[in-house]
Amino acid sequence: MDSTLPIFRKTVNQTAECGLKHIYIDLFAAPLADSQYVHVFRDEAMAQAYLILSESPYQPSNPGPVVVGIGERIVWDGRAWTIFNQGDTVVSMRSDSGDWIEVNREEFYALVSRNRITQPIQKGQTRIGGINDEEVTILARATKQDLEEGNARYRLLQRYRSGETPQQLGTPYRTLRDWEVKHEEAEREYGHGYLGLITHYQRSGNPQRKLPDASLEAMQKYIVNDYETDKQKSKVHSWGQMAKYCEKNGIHAPTYKTYCKEIAKRGDYEQTLKRKGRRAAYQVEVPYLFLEYSTPRHGDFPWQIVHLDHGQPDIQLVSSRTKKVLGKPWETVMVDAYSRRTLAVYLSYDPPSHRSDMMVIRECVRRYKRLPQILVVDGGADFNSTYFESLLAYYNITKLERPPAEPRAGSPIERLFGTTHTSFIYNLLGNTQASKQVREMTQSVDPRNKAVWTLSAFYRRLCQWCYDVYDTSFHSTLEQSPREEYEAGMALGGVRPYREIDYDKKFLMMTLPAPERPMAKVIYRKGVQVHYEFYWSEKFRDSEVVGTDVEIRYDPFDISRVFALVKGEWISCTAANRMILRNHSERELQLISAELRRRQTVSAQQYQIRIKHIAEFLASVEAEELLGIQRLRDAESRDILQIIDPSYSDQFSLFQVPALSLDMQDMQKNDEDEEDSEDGKPEDAEIYGDYE
């Protein structure tokens, strides 16, 4: 680098999506904090070219006559003036700062003739640091090779003008004279002679297409109408069809190589959209690389936008009672879009449903006493249920649905799922990485044989990971941890106490689901009918209540009871077959109903399902075969309820978690006796508290 130029230091930019590798900044020109005077260049050659143009004395290119008239603006000694009067002897002017001056008419025109007074640059010719728009355009079109060659010519020409001979410079005299002529011509045309020394290698050759217009038209026609179709023809077959068409019509057919190059010139997104559809085209769509005013944002403060979604962790879990493998669970997560903080997590064996939505919303309110302003969900059926939408409407929450098959629309929560798998779950026994390559999996690495984690133990550790580890880890997008971003956002946006929600009986009732018919009629001496069963309460003895319709809510984890709103008070109602339905979940009821319907469909008998049939089925041996795993899963889910909030039974008598049935208690006791006989003493268990 020339010693006369300041030092340029290279800064590496890791933004691979933009295709950037290096940028050049003059660290000594201005402080980096003063962005108005800091210039960023694409490479060293461009930086040196800009410096040469900035330091070279500017000569106006063909300034021409100055228009003198009332209202015209002129530039005199670097200041802008406006002509207000042109008399016979003086010219009156006022500067932009309000100063008035009168100049003798003859002196004024003498200054104009010596170019001391000029016309200001018009629109489109605004100067930037001594360089106008036209010169910037020339520099932008020049390649790195053009600029490096122009810089070398400029240095040699400067040395030649300072007195060095062509022999000393190692450059022929005629070459130096040619450069000097180009320098002078550019100085007259643009005001800067350096622009005449820039080479234009990219303009060499003949860039015009050699193919006839008919060939180009045929090629474009077959690319659009034959190749870019949902038939997904290969390039060679589409080219063959075009070649056959050209031969038939006497047109010169382009070569296969030319045809492939023309296809590559067209946009990947539009081409993939026509050939493979919207979902495949989404993979090649250009993502948002930076935020503009029109770019969708993830909220302006915490709790403005929150994502809610379900995922299935890649891990096999076992029963804490029988050690039987129960399969992979489902997790339901709420993530704040602004801070990327995990607000609530719920785990269950049941597939995504309103039960999971209810529990994760409960957990969110229990931990933070608030719900979001906007809730972003996908198109799942559970998010479109009347129960879920009624809950959001009651708390004034706006629901937004993500576009289908566009995972980047839910990037905050999708990233959490991915990071949780790679950094946490894939380090546990029983993870299902091996099962993804079925042909390579053996019994020694089968996740089912390696499973040791129970639902409650895994849930404790998952909460610890989300609420403590991930929450305090550095986030590359935020450039700090989610917790720090959340706290800064709350300090900036405010706490908003009017959005707080009390975690009380009223809220818990709002999060309970309602049956398909939310209102039930109170029948004399029977009560209300829900889920094919009658439920009774002593409040139904009141003659004023009999015959009226009451609002119903039910506990999805225990179908032996429902809750009815009687005279403004929620009361608990017990099923007539309480001992049979006790400790059975809504999920079990769905499985039983589906099985009974299947049997009657097979036998071609259509009849209404009655609770006695369900009771008989529950008591049969087949129920043990069909519902054995589901019962174990429900028992594990009740353990999760106790982990989430052990104060249920103390604070809200309506929401007591049912105790284990006698057979489960005996089974658990036998397991504990076996462990005591093997180890001699009970195994110590590590206990974790709630994660706030």
Walkthrough of the structure:
The chain is of the alpha+beta class and 692 residues long. Helices cover 39% and strands 14% of the residues. It folds into five domains: 9-58 and 128-203, no CATH class; 73-118, no CATH class; 213-282, Orthogonal Bundle (Arc Repressor Mutant, subunit A); 305-505, Ribonuclease H-like superfamily/Ribonuclease H (Nucleotidyltransferase, domain 5, 2-Layer Sandwich), CATH 3.30.420.10; 517-619, no CATH class. The protein contains 24 helices and 21 strands. The strands form five sheets. The chain has a six-stranded antiparallel β-sheet, with no helix packed on it. Strand 5 and strand 6 form a beta hairpin. It starts with 8 loop residues before the first strand and ends in a 13-residue tail after the last helix.
Low-confidence stretches: 1-19, 58-64, 121-130, 288-295, 602-606, 648-692
What's the CATH H-level superfamily name of the largest domain? Ribonuclease H-like superfamily/Ribonuclease H
- The CATH topology of the largest domain is Nucleotidyltransferase, domain 5
Which strand order does the major sheet show?
16-19-20-21-18-17
Measured between the Cα atoms of the first and last residue, the distance is: 59 Å
- How much is the average pLDDT? 76
Instruction: Quickly count the domains.
Output: 5
Topology:
Elements: E1 9-12, E2 22-25, E3 40-41, H1 44-55, E4 73-76, E5 79-86, E6 90-95, E7 100-104, H2 105-113, E8 117-118, H3 133-141, H4 144-161, H5 166-169, H6 173-189, H7 213-227, H8 235-248, H9 256-265, H10 268-276, H11 278-282, E9 305-311, E10 317-318, E11 325-327, E12 330-336, E13 342-348, H12 354-368, E14 374-377, H13 386-394, E15 398-401, H14 411-423, H15 447-450, H16 455-469, H17 482-493, H18 505-510, E16 519-521, E17 528-530, E18 533-536, E19 549-554, E20 561-566, E21 569-575, H19 578-581, H20 586-602, H21 611-619, H22 621-644, H23 648-651, H24 662-679
